[in-house]
Specification:
Gyrase A, domain 2; 8 helices; alpha+beta; two-stranded parallel ribbon; globular; 240 residues
């Protein structure tokens, strides 16, 4: 039987592939409404002199000036994370295809610091640590099921079954890869829902694995547009 060596991971990968995004992008987009063609002068302006304008736009939710930029991320994460991400119809996605390539046996298994037990009712709940026995169960059961599923996948491929059929036995914890292209306004919407922060005006209860992706994307965005990010933080992490 062919195939690859099975690998288990408990992390996600987020890499910024390319970006056209800086705080000055917000300025020229906003000022065209009052300056017309003269707003071209703001295309490379010193945004640090216009923190007040960016803060005003964020506070009063004038959102469109935050759309004139672009960031493309390469993301590797479990398939169940991608299915949650794609519910945000605010980005462009291209994912690797199990129809056209043999999927690698890389599977997600929670790390020991991942909280396992949900307490409370929907809308009023939190997650707490599991017992050593619960962590052992999750780890061993996940590894067992993934190994069995991958062996079944390989068995079908070796028998000449099409990849698009053989893949049906693989679990949602299988890693996939995709490119995500998004602008700052859309990213703020994503972050407001998929990160849990004490300073957020509206509470969010994201699944930890998608929050791991969101945190890495936010770190890259903060580096590119620090003034815009600071305004997002100051005004309660509400997408404009």
């Amino acid at each position: 039987m062919g195939g690859y060596e099975i690998e288990f991971r408990h992390s996600v990968t987020v890499e910024l592939v390319r970006a056209s995004a800086q705080d000055a992008d917000v300025l020229f987009a906003a000022r065209v409404s009052t300056k017309g063609e003269q707003s071209l002068e703001d295309a490379h302006a010193d945004a640090s002199r216009s923190k007040g304008l960016i803060g005003y736009l964020m506070r009063d939710r004038h959102g469109s000036p935050f759309e004139h930029n672009s960031m493309t991320f390469f993301v590797q994460a479990p398939i169940f994370v991608f299915r949650e991400m794609m519910r945000h119809r605010i980005a462009s996605y291209n994912e690797e295809s199990g129809r056209y390539r043999e999927l690698r046996p890389v599977f997600y298994v929670p790390a020991t610091e991942r909280k396992l037990v949900q307490e409370g009712k929907p809308g009023h709940y939190n997650f707490v640590d599991g017992t050593p026995e619960q962590y052992k169960l999750v780890d061993e059961a996940t590894r067992r099921v993934c190994e069995e599923a991958y062996h079944a996948y390989q068995e079908m491929l070796d028998a000449g079954i099409a990849r698009e059929v053989a893949r049906i036995v693989l679990p949602l914890t299988t890693y996939s890869s995709m490119y995500v292209t998004v602008n700052a306004r859309s990213l703020m919407n994503f972050l407001s829902l998929r990160t849990k922060r004490d300073n957020a005006r509206y509470p969010s209860f994201p699944q930890r694995e998608i929050e791991m992706v969101a945190e890495k994307m936010e770190a890259e965005w903060e580096r590119l547009m620090p003034i815009t990010h600071a305004a997002f933080e100051e005004h309660g992490r509400v997408a404009p």
